[in-house]
């Protein structure tokens, strides 16, 4: 048995540590077929003082096994090199077992004027290890490995937070560029793969780091119509910076909420249009069923999965998952059912919240600074911030963007302005239009104190006693003076989505007409009513769908829960991935109380004529009763990819209604997957 310590034990690639590192994930099982007494465990050799042991008990019974552990801590002053030792297990004066310990301490790689270099020579399957102290605030660093010989070398990097990177091969070199690297010790490994002769190499690190003092600009209790100046001292600890420019930037956010459901191995997706101004995407998903696990992730415009290292798989509240500076184009968020589904028919519903951050020029700020700063040199930036007289914003956050030919740096700026504020809930009313003792509408009035006339938008969530979302608050209005804003909540939505009372208002936020944040009401708002005091819906869409597509029709079963028996109508449109309409259908049927599946059947001819493999998306789905719309789903359901050539044009489809239970997505006529595409046969 042999014990190799390493900073990345799960990857088994980098078997080295830096001074100050600890490798604690070392466990052993000791087994013996006879009783042992007076058992001793000790560490010998160069690393005797580095190893801490969870020792074995003095007595072990026959055929018993015991687990013991060891951790290795490298001293801060340890010199580079290979250190050896053993864990000895003995009884009295007899050695029973020796476990060798090998600790490879990496060599330091120092950076001067933004660059660090190391040279070396490797042969066979040798490894060389280095460590780099990454300073806080580093914008970017690039590692490049160059060798002249006709052999193959590998470059590996491990961050202080255990992210693992490999060099990308370009001719006889490997390069890896890391944006916004974690601060702390980075381990860098160079490896030769079966080299038959010595391969000389040069490892080079280039760092981009600009330090400013102060590191941010906080302007408190500023008055509208005033101007303030400040200076920032800059110290360039990276490469020389040329053609510098300075811009004030503010980030506006847009919020969208989506609802959907998936079964086992089923895929739901939504398309996001990302522009050059998009600086970040942030998504958070929550599921209704804690026993069913889903996976959600981003897909880039090249249809490649971009999966975060955590927070994307599980149940309940997942996330957020975030992308910084995504490339422009059509991105997707995909949700997949993974495990915990008890039957092929079982579905789990979810809600997906998406925040899109868009960077725009901040015209409140003007900035002046030097055109260039050499490596290890200093400079000064002067900034002037003028607050408009007519602003209604209480706070604004942005940054000063410093750009060179190849890099950008940011100085955060926060401005707090005395002004418009939310005053909380001022009035609560209910309406019973048909006098049946159940409320049809809940009306809430929220107070607003303003300093100037303007247009405003109020966002928030009406939630039940457990924090479960009942209905989103999203209302726009104009005010010339301080007053109240009225918001109506549907009684049927409260009955359907509320599980318990009293209800509450969460995340009450005020925005201006451009979507910029103004104020958030942080105090508790309680509404002392029970959801069952409100009117139930006549019927509602459950969010469960059945793919009953055959080779002659695109058929989608829509599950409906009926409270009041009667005649119901269902309308919907199908589109392809490009958003082109491929069919429209309307069906009617008499439904009894309980669950029913309304089958919408579409003629596949328009989809066939478009000629491209695509998913089919059911949109603008409307459930009606007696000519009155009960519920609408803008993006109801999406299939897997379908091949138009798999259809045979026959008769025009007709809709139908059935009381059959919902079954798992997958066509009755035989929808099968081939190379990731749903083929209908």
Describe the overall structure.
This protein is an all-beta fold. The chain has six domains: 3-105, Immunoglobulin-like (Sandwich); 107-208, Jelly Rolls, CATH 2.60.120.380; 210-244 and 369-417, Sandwich (Immunoglobulin-like); 252-360, Sandwich (Jelly Rolls); 421-533, abc- transporter (atp binding component) like domain (Coagulation Factor XIII, Chain A, domain 1, Distorted Sandwich), CATH 2.70.50; 539-680, Immunoglobulin-like (Sandwich), CATH 2.60.40. It is built from two helices and 51 strands. The longest helix is centred in the last third of the chain and has 7 residues, at 491-497.
Brief summary of the model shown:
This protein is an all-beta fold and 681 residues long. The protein is built from 2 helices and 51 strands.
Q: Work out the helix count.
A: 2
Strand content: over 45%
Task: Tell me the Rg in angstroms.
Answer: 32 Å
**CATH class category label of the largest domain:** Mainly Beta
Strand order of the largest sheet: 19-33-32-21-29-23-27
Helical residue percent?
A: under 10%
Multimerization state: single chain
Mean pLDDT level: 85
Structural class: mainly beta
Q: Report the major sheet.
A: 7 strands, mixed
Keywords:
6 domains; five-stranded mixed β-sheet; 681 residues; disordered N terminus; seven-stranded mixed β-sheet; Immunoglobulin-like; mainly beta; 51 strands; 2 helices; disordered C terminus
What is the secondary structure topology, with strand pairs?
Elements: E1 3-4, E2 22-32, E3 39-45, E4 51-54, E5 64-73, E6 81-91, E7 94-105, E8 107-108, E9 115-124, E10 127-134, E11 140-146, E12 153-158, E13 164-166, E14 168-169, E15 173-179, E16 184-192, E17 195-208, E18 210-213, E19 217-222, E20 227-236, E21 245-262, E22 267-274, E23 278-287, E24 293-299, E25 305-306, E26 313-314, E27 317-324, E28 329-339, E29 348-361, E30 365-368, E31 377-386, E32 395-403, E33 408-417, E34 421-431, E35 441-449, E36 454-463, E37 469-479, E38 483-490, H1 491-497, E39 503-512, E40 517-521, E41 525-527, E42 539-547, E43 554-562, E44 566-575, E45 581-591, E46 594-602, H2 605-610, E47 617-625, E48 628-638, E49 656-658, E50 671-674, E51 677-680
Parallel strand pairs: 1-7, 8-10, 19-33
Antiparallel strand pairs: 2-5, 3-6, 4-5, 6-7, 9-17, 10-16, 11-15, 11-17, 12-13, 12-16, 14-15, 18-20, 20-31, 21-29, 21-32, 22-28, 23-27, 23-29, 24-25, 24-26, 24-28, 30-31, 32-33, 34-35, 35-38, 36-37, 36-39, 39-40, 39-41, 42-43, 43-46, 44-45, 44-47, 46-49, 47-48, 50-51
